[in-house]
Amino acid sequence: MTRISEIHGIKQIPADEYADRGEQVQKPGYVPFLSLTKGEMELLLLAQRAKILAQFYGNDAPQYKQAATLLDNALHAGIHSGGAISVGAIPDALQWVAKTIQKAKTETAPASGGLFYRPKAMAGIGQIIPAAQRQAACLDAAGLDPFKRARCKKAFQIETIINGYLEPAAPHMLYKSIATDFTVPTEVAIKRQGHKLGVQGLAQVGGLSSVLMDSWVENGILARNASGGVGAAGSIKSSFYLSKDPEKEFADYLATHPAASKWYGINGPHIGIAPAIVVALTGLLLAAIGAATKLLTDLQKVDFKALVETRGFGTSAYSADQADWVLGGKNQQTNTQMNEILMLALLAGGVFLLNEEN
C-alpha cells in the first residue's frame, strides 16, 4: 500500500476531541471507475485517503493536506496528457507523492475490464461527470447495437451500486488485510479469508483489480472509523480493537509488520477510551451488515453471479466481532501461512464452520 509518512511528537488526541474531529470528515466521494485509467484511479483513491486524514487531523498533520493538494492538481491537469506535471517545491516527507504521480502516468490501461467509456469532456478528472450523463453518452456512442447498449447499462448500474453502498459496507470486510503469517484466533483467520474473498468478489463484478478494490474498501473503513467515533484507524488497527488487549496485540503486529502504522499512525487511541472506541466500532460493524446486504441484493439484480463465492456476505456470521478473539474450544491461536489444511477449508468457503459448531 502506498504510504503517507508517520508524524512524530504530536500529543495523543483526548477522547472528547474524537467526535469533534469526526464531524469534519466528509464522505470520500464518487469513484467513476468506468471512465478512469488504473493510474487515475490509484491517485484518486490516494487523494481521498489523504483528505480523510487531513480532515480528521487538521493543522496537527499539515502534510496530509499537502499530499491531497498535489494529487488533486495532478488529476485536474490530466496525468496522461503528455505534458510535464509540476509539483513545485515539496518537503522531503512527500517526495513519494511526486514519484507515485509519475508512476501513475504510465498506467494507462482502463481501471475496469468491464467497460471503459471516456467522454471527450473528461480530459482530467477534477470535475467528475455524473454517471447518468456518462451512461447517456455511452448509449449514444453505442447507437442501435443492442449488445453495446446492454453493456453500457449494466456497467453503469454496477458502478452506481458499488459507489452507493461501499463506504458504509466497508467495515464488513474489516479483517481483510491482517497478514497470514501473524498468529490470530482460528475464527479470525476464517473470517479474514472470507473478507478477502469479499474484496475479490467486488473487484470481479466491477471488472477492477483486487489491489484497486482493496484500496477503495480501505478508504471506506477509514472514513467510517474517522467519522464514527473510532478515530483515524485503518482496517488492521481497528481489527485489533476487538481483541482482549488491543494495545499489546497491535504492538506485537507492528513489531513484525511496521508498515501497518504508516497511513494512520499519528496517534494511537488513549488507553482510557478503548471501551468507547469498541462501542463505536461495534455500531459501525452492525450498520455495515445492513449495507452489505443491500449491496449484495442490488448487485445480484444486475449480475446474479455477483459475490457467489463469498459465503455469508451480508450476514452477522460474516462480520468481525469481539467474540472472534475469545479463545476456547476450536477457536485457538493459529498461523495460516503454512497450514494447508486450514487454508483449504477457508478457500472452500468455510466461513460458517466455527459458527455452526459453537
Question: What would your notes on this structure say?
Answer:
This protein has helices at 15-22, 38-57, 62-77, 95-105, 131-142, 146-169, 186-206, 210-227, 235-240, 246-256, 274-302, 340-347, 353-357, and strands spanning 184-185, 333-334. With 358 residues, it is an all-alpha fold. It has a domain at 168-357. The protein has a two-stranded antiparallel sheet. Helix 2 runs antiparallel to helix 3 and helix 6 (146-169) packs antiparallel against helix 11.
List keywords for this structure.
single chain, 358 residues, mainly alpha, two-stranded antiparallel sheet, 1% strand, globular, disordered C terminus
Query: Which residues sit in consecutive blocks of at least 5 with pLDDT less than 50?
Result: 1-11, 264-273, 349-358
**H/I helix tally:** 13
Q: Pairing-aware structural class of the strands and helices? A: mainly alpha
Instruction: Note the run of SSEs as H and E.
Output: HHHHHHEHHHHHEHH
Strand content: under 5%
Instruction: Give the strand order, joined by hyphens, for the main sheet.
Output: 1-2
Overall mean pLDDT score?
Answer: 84
DSSP E strands, number = 2
Largest sheet: 2 strands, antiparallel
Helix content: 40-55%
Shape: globular
The rounded distance between the terminal residues' Cα atoms is 36 Å
- Rounded to an integer in angstroms, the radius of gyration calculated over CA atoms is 21 Å
